[in-house]
Design brief:
Blueprint: H1 13-34, H2 36-43, H3 66-91, H4 94-115, H5 122-151, H6 156-182, H7 187-211, H8 216-222, H9 226-229, H10 232-241, H11 282-306, H12 322-345, H13 359-366, H14 370-375, H15 392-416, H16 426-454
Helix pairs in contact: 1-5, 1-6, 1-7, 3-5, 3-16, 4-5, 4-7, 5-10, 6-7, 6-12, 10-16, 11-13, 11-15, 11-16, 12-15
């Protein structure tokens, strides 16, 4: 909540800065997974100047399992830094964490862009790319947590703007891919332009962050005492829960920040457990939310087990042409991001089923059906399973339901968890749900290796 004597945000410069910073935090993940066809082309030894950026070279027999590895090495850093964030944030100054992370991400993306013009063996290219993915996402996790720490001192509307920027990152990456493919230049120049785009985005993020100390409004809120810094990330999550915004992020990593702490709806108090002002028990909180946490794990396990590892391999069943070229960027990545964002925004209008209903576990378990449905779509060069859904319409329908259900159920579980505990236990619930979020992402990325092997 804004302080009464706070200065005005002139020309909304602080809000715009946090919006761009939010966009910058999720550009790495989205630009890498959207460019899977490009990486597959390089790993199959295709001449990048002759191949189209959007051409799908993926097959179940892929030697490097690029789709699977890029997903796994993107999610493991999130799990790691979820466990280490308290230690890390106390040892390294905030400015060093944020600027250092942005600079490292910028340099690694610049390296990725340079490699477009460098001929090298597929094995060496794979090793360099995987190392870049790991370090980019590691520093991205540090960057994200540090920025949410700063947002803990700002009015909640700035957290909303930051999340809105994150929510556009996936759509932005998909549109950048489509524009690169439609530009009419050769594929190598197209790929170079595609990877230069996030470099520009990260540069803008650096400029925005460096400008904050020069803005009176930002200085007023960011000049905090050391005691105020403790637990800022969780406080920010609590603020987000009280806002009725629709700009919920559309990437898996950001789901932990869509908690809904409704101050007007208190959780039911058990007669034998009076409210205690002291430090809540982690075990007691887990006993109350274990089923909701398990649902969150399962939602992300299903999603990351097939997206993008399996879905990026699906091709159009129509004859070669423009639609075949644009099919996967549009129907896989762009469609997923738009519908996932829509699904998350639905919880701003209704929450169904509620925390006492057993329908939620049922709905979450039904999503397991998407695994065989996508595996039976039009993936060429398979060796075990048949193709039962060859038409493009099947894949588009599955993706619509898959993305909407992912967004809605993720947001719903994160909204319901704080309602199942006492007010003083909500921060612990938020921390636990963040951990289970990262656990679900890592489990799904690991399972993708098995499902790809079954094709």
């Amino acid at each position: 909540m804004a302080r009464g004597d706070a200065p005005q945000d002139s020309y909304h410069l602080v809000g715009i800065s946090f919006f761009i910073l939010g966009l910058g935090t999720l550009l790495p993940w989205n630009f890498f997974i959207t460019a899977i066809p490009y990486f597959q082309g390089r790993l199959t030894g295709a001449n990048s100047t002759a191949e189209t950026l959007g051409t799908n070279h993926t097959s179940p027999a892929d030697t490097f399992n690029f789709n699977n590895w890029v997903t796994l090495l993107s999610q493991l850093p999130l799990l790691l830094f979820t466990l280490l964030n308290s230690f890390l944030y106390q040892c390294i100054p905030e400015t060093v964490r944020i600027l250092g992370s942005l600079l490292v991400i910028l340099l690694l993306f610049a390296l990725t862009a340079v490699l477009v013009k460098v001929d090298m063996s597929p094995g060496l290219f794979f090793s360099i790319t995987m190392a870049s993915v790991w370090f980019i996402n590691s520093f991205g996790a540090v960057l994200q947590g540090s920025l949410f720490g700063q947002l803990g001192t700002m009015p909640s509307t700035y957290s909303t703007l930051f999340l809105s920027g994150q929510g556009l990152a996936g759509i932005f990456a998909a549109l950048a891919m489509l524009m690169s493919m439609a530009s009419g230049v050769d594929a190598q120049t197209s790929a170079l332009g595609y990877f230069i785009t996030p470099c520009v985005g990260i540069l803008m993020s650096i400029v925005c962050y460096l400008s904050l100390p020069h803005l009176k409004f930002a200085r007023y809120y960011l000049a905090k005492k050391p005691s105020q810094a403790k637990g800022q990330e969780l406080e920010t999550k609590a603020e987000l829960l009280q806002s009725d915004e629709n700009g919920i992020p559309n990437s898996p990593q950001k789901a932990a920040l869509t908690l809904d702490l409704d101050p007007e709806k208190e959780p039911e108090m058990e007669p034998e457990e009076p409210q205690k002002p002291g430090k809540p028990s982690v075990f007691l909180v887990f006993r109350k939310i274990w089923l909701t946490a398990l649902c969150l794990v399962l939602v992300f396990t299903v999603t990351l087990s097939v997206f993008p590892a399996i879905t990026a391999m699906v091709t159009s069943s129509t004859s070669p042409g423009k639609w075949s070229q644009f099919f996967n960027p549009i129907c896989c990545f762009l469609l997923f991001n738009i519908m996932d964002c829509l699904g998350r925004s639905l919880t701003s209008y209704f929450l169904w089923p509620d925390e006492d209903s057993r329908l939620l576990p049922l709905l979450v378990c039904l999503r397991i059906l998407f695994v065989p449905l996508f595996m039976l779509c039009h993936v060429p060069e398979r060796s075990r399973l048949p193709i039962l859904f060859p038409q493009d319409a099947y894949f588009i329908t599955f993706m619509l339901l898959f993305a909407v259900s992912n967004g809605y159920l993720v947001s719903l579980t994160m909204c319901l968890a704080p309602r199942q505990v006492l007010p003083h236990e909500r921060e612990v619930a938020g921390t636990l749900m963040t951990f289970f979020l990262a656990l679900g992402l890592s489990c799904g990325a690991s399972l993708s290796f098995l499902f790809k092997a079954l094709l």
